[in-house]
């Protein structure tokens, strides 16, 4: 009984110490305490559209610093594990956290040019969850700070249903086309990867080395059950007349946020 | 005697099976949640029951009641959207897991995560369109709602459902929830369950096993239920 009372007093004392420390820290820089920072103009439009990675990482550096554990509590070694989509040949390197994989790993630096603001568009502190207030910034989805449509651009499923001549998912039909996407795509969809978060040159080069590596992103790393409705530019020479049903209502240009 | 594992063989097999296609588990029966957005008073008893059951510290919230408020006087409105893991028919989290910690049960479609196999890469957290996987900074692992599988196996309902004082949250077979034929207090006599409400990610992404009775201001045009 006495022991538990002493423990309780000790805990209260340490809590009080913590509170004093937090207060002291706040007092040092009242502009940038946690609650104050949430209202920093950089989290709102228009400033968020111009925010640099350095500005974001000044406070959010833990997303780069934090790495995966070397092994799970049950002893699964992270260097020996591999996810479904990591069986693609163009996946390399050890297990890394999601953010590092998109920003700082050698593979990310080679093929991608993601900035924080490619996916994140700030947050409205008035929203307890994103999109819950009517004045909330558009493009945010209930309970998620990133619109999954952005993920869908690279993590959608393989859209074989709209590709004439394909009877199934790529692994089923690849042999028929000698594992070469460019057999057809030297004529179709010739404007590729001209987006500001991709290294267009490196991606096209990679494809030249191994011709079906396109599948790595276009279906091979599918998170979602649906494909991304890529923009459709008219193929007037090849397909005069009406657009096919699936291409109706598709935009002909990407959101200015993503174009170079 | 147990034969030692030849890891080079496994690696060769992985190489051979490049570009694996993941086929989602097709459960015998898919359980799903139903939530009445209008009658929910937002007391958050479900959240607390969930945290209690799962022993969660402040921070990770397996179940979240979202307060949606808007409008101009006098035409103002408020409703609640209550989500945890939606135990999707085609979960996005499952194929992203490098250690196989995430799995979907054959008998009832519950998507569970074995946190003892988790290395904290947080891919599942990013892939989920509904924010279900929760990162626990106290042990750097990801955890999430498992619909209280132990309770389900014991023939009872999850803690959140049992704690709901308004009886607006329930679970049931998803096909019966869709047709509103499931006997539950979460669906009123003239209510029509919908798959999506305003500001929620497209249900076609993963086919989440959740239905809502939407508020008139929370209805979305492209609902395909």
How would you portray this structure in words?
The complex is a heterodimer of chains A (260) and B (225). With 260 residues, chain A is an all-alpha fold. Chain A folds into two domains: 31-140, no CATH class; 154-231 and 243-247, no CATH class. Chain A is 35% helix and 0% strand. Chain A is built from twelve helices and no strands. Chain A has helices at residues 2-28, 34-38, 47-50, 53-60, 62-65, 98-103, 106-111, 116-119, 148-155, 170-173, 182-185, 200-209. Chain A is globular, with a radius of gyration of 24 Å. The relative contact order of chain A is 0.10. Chain B has 225 residues and is α+β, with helices and mostly antiparallel strands. Chain B has a domain at 22-88 and 145-218: Alpha-Beta Plaits, CATH 3.30.70. Chain B contains seven helices and nine strands. Chain B has a three-stranded mixed β-sheet. Chain B has a two-stranded antiparallel ribbon with strand order 2-3. The longest helix of chain B is centred in the first third of the chain and has 10 residues, at 7-16. The mean pLDDT of chain B is 90. Chains A and B meet through helix 6 and helix 9 of A and strand 2 and helix 4 of B.
């Amino acid at each position: 009984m006495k022991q538990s009372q002493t423990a309780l007093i000790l805990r209260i004392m340490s809590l009080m110490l913590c509170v004093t420390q937090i207060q002291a820290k706040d007092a040092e820089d009242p502009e940038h305490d946690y609650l104050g920072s949430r209202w920093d103009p950089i989290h709102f439009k228009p400033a968020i559209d111009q925010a640099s990675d350095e500005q974001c990482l000044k406070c959010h550096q833990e997303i780069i610093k934090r790495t995966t554990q070397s092994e799970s509590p049950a002893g699964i070694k992270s260097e020996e594990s591999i996810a479904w989509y990591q069986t693609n040949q163009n996946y390399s390197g050890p297990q890394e956290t999601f953010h590092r994989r998109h920003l700082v790993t050698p593979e990310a630096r080679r093929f991608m040019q993601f900035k924080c603001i490619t996916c994140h568009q700030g947050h409205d502190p008035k929203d307890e969850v994103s999109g819950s207030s009517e004045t909330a910034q558009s493009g945010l989805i209930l309970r998620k700070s990133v619109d999954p449509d952005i993920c869908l651009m690279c993590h959608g499923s393989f859209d074989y249903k709209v590709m004439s001549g394909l009877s199934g998912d790529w692994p089923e039909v690849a042999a028929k086309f000698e594992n070469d996407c460019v057999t057809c795509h030297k004529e179709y969809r010739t404007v590729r990867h001209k987006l500001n978060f991709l290294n267009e040159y490196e991606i096209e080069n990679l494809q030249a080395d191994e011709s079906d590596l396109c599948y790595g992103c276009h279906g091979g790393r599918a998170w979602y059950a649906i494909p991304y409705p890529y923009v459709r530019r008219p193929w007037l020479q090849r397909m005069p007349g009406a657009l096919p049903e699936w291409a109706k209502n598709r935009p002909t240009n990407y959101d200015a946020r993503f174009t170079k | 005697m147990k034969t030692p594992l030849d890891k080079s063989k496994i690696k060769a097999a992985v190489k051979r099976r490049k570009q694996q296609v993941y086929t989602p588990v097709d459960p015998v029966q898919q359980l799903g949640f139903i939530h009445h957005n209008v009658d929910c008073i937002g007391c958050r008893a479900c959240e607390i029951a969930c945290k209690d059951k799962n022993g969660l510290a402040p921070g990770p919230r397996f179940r979240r009641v979202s307060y949606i408020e808007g409008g101009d006087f006098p035409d103002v409105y408020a409703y609640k959207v209550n989500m945890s893991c939606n135990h999707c028919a085609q979960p996005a989290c499952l194929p992203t897991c490098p250690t196989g910690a995430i799995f979907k049960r054959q008998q009832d479609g519950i998507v569970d995560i074995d946190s003892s196999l988790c290395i904290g890469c947080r891919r599942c957290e990013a892939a989920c369109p509904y924010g279900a996987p929760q990162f626990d900074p106290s042990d750097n692992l990801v955890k999430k709602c498992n619909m209280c599988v132990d309770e389900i196996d014991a023939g009872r309902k999850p803690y959140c459902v049992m704690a709901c004082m308004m009886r607006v949250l329930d679970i049931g077979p998803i096909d019966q929830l869709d047709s509103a034929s499931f006997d539950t207090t979460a669906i009123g006599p003239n209510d029509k369950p919908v798959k999506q409400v305003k500001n929620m990610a497209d249900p076609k992404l993963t086919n989440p096993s959740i239905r809502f009775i939407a508020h008139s201001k929370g209805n979305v045009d492209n609902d395909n239920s």
